[in-house]
Design goal:
This protein has 264 residues and is α+β, with helices and mostly antiparallel strands. The chain contains five helices and ten strands, in the order H-E-E-E-E-H-E-E-E-H-E-E-E-H-H. About 7% of the residues have low confidence.
Length: 264
C-alpha cells in the first residue's frame, strides 16, 4: 500500500477517533451528574459509615389538625357508648387545636396539647382517659402536615407527611424520584422558620446531605428541583431539532474529512 494512502487512512482514523472520543466524554459527564452520592466508593468490599443529622420531633401548634383515637375493651360507668368510636373514620376523630392550644375530646374533656410532641400528647390523653376507660389505647397523629415537591420530579405535587420522621430522600421518593433532566447537584429547599422564609441548597451527589440540619423535612417545606441546562434550553427550542442538528453536523464532518483525505 502506498505511503500516501497509509497516511490518509491514519489521518482519517485519528479524526474519527477524536469525534467519537468527544461524544463519549460528553456522555460520561452527563452520567456523572445523574449519579447519586458520588463520594461513596464503588467497591463492594468497601464499607462507608455515614453520620446522620439529629432528628427533632415536631411540636403541636395552634390550628394543627390531629387524629386522636381512644380505644378500650371495657368502659367504666358512662352514659355514652364510646365503644362505637372504634369503627369511626379519621375524619370523625380529627380535632383542630384551638388558639388556646386545646382540643376537646368527647368524654375526656378539654386538654392542652400545644407545645407537646405527639408522644407527649398521647401520654397525657392516656392519663386522663384512665378515669373513664379500662386500659385505654391512645393513638394520635398529624393530619394537616404536608410538603410540596416541585420541578423536575416524576410526580410533583402536595404530599402528605404520613410519617413524622421524613427525610429529603423520603420526600423525593414519594414524588417518584428526580427525572433525568433534574439537577441533582443543586436542589432547593424553602422552609419557614420563626416567621421568615429560609432557602437552602444541597447536593444529592454527596453524602454531606445526611449531616444537614435540613435533612428531615417539616410541615410546609417546599422542595424544588431545577431543570438541567439541556431541559432549560429545550424549553425555548425544539429538543428534537437540536439532536437532528447535532447528528447532521457529525455526519457532515465525517463526509468532509473523507472527501479531504481521499478525493482531493
Amino acid at each position: 500500500m502506498p505511503t500516501t494512502m497509509v497516511k490518509k487512512i491514519a489521518y482519517l482514523s485519528l479524526c474519527l477517533m477524536t469525534i467519537f472520543f468527544y461524544q463519549s466524554i460528553t456522555s460520561c459527564t452527563t452520567a456523572k451528574k445523574v449519579k447519586y452520592f458520588k463520594n461513596i466508593s464503588d467497591s463492594i468490599d468497601h464499607t462507608t459509615n455515614i453520620a446522620e443529622a439529629n432528628y427533632v420531633e415536631p411540636r403541636i401548634e395552634a390550628n394543627d389538625v390531629l387524629f386522636v383515637s381512644v380505644q378500650t375493651i371495657d368502659i367504666k360507668n358512662l352514659t355514652t357508648d364510646a365503644s362505637t368510636r372504634n369503627n369511626a373514620t379519621e375524619e370523625n376523630l380529627s380535632y383542630i387545636v384551638d388558639k388556646s392550644g386545646h382540643i376537646d375530646i368527647p368524654v375526656i374533656g378539654s386538654i392542652k396539647v400545644e407545645g407537646l410532641t405527639t408522644f407527649e400528647a398521647k401520654e397525657l390523653i392516656k392519663e386522663r382517659a384512665t378515669k373513664y376507660y379500662v386500659t385505654p389505647i391512645v393513638n394520635i397523629k398529624f393530619l394537616n402536615h404536608f410538603i410540596n415537591v416541585m420541578g423536575e420530579v416524576n410526580r410533583p405535587g402536595r404530599l402528605p407527611l404520613l410519617n413524622e420522621k421524613t427525610s429529603v430522600l423520603d420526600a423525593i421518593s414519594l414524588a417518584g424520584d428526580l427525572s433525568i433532566q433534574g439537577k441533582r447537584e443543586n436542589v432547593l429547599l424553602i422552609r419557614e422558620e420563626n416567621g421568615k422564609k429560609v432557602a437552602v441548597r444541597f447536593s444529592l451527589n454527596s453524602t454531606d446531605l445526611f449531616q444537614s440540619p435540613y435533612y428531615y423535612v417539616r410541615n410546609g417545606d417546599v422542595i424544588y428541583v431545577e431543570p438541567n441546562k439541556a431541559k432549560a434550553r429545550g424549553a425555548t427550542t425544539d429538543a428534537s431539532r437540536d439532536r437532528y442538528i447535532s447528528l447532521t453536523s457529525t455526519l457532515l464532518s465525517i463526509i468532509v474529512i473523507v472527501y479531504t483525505v481521499f478525493l482531493k
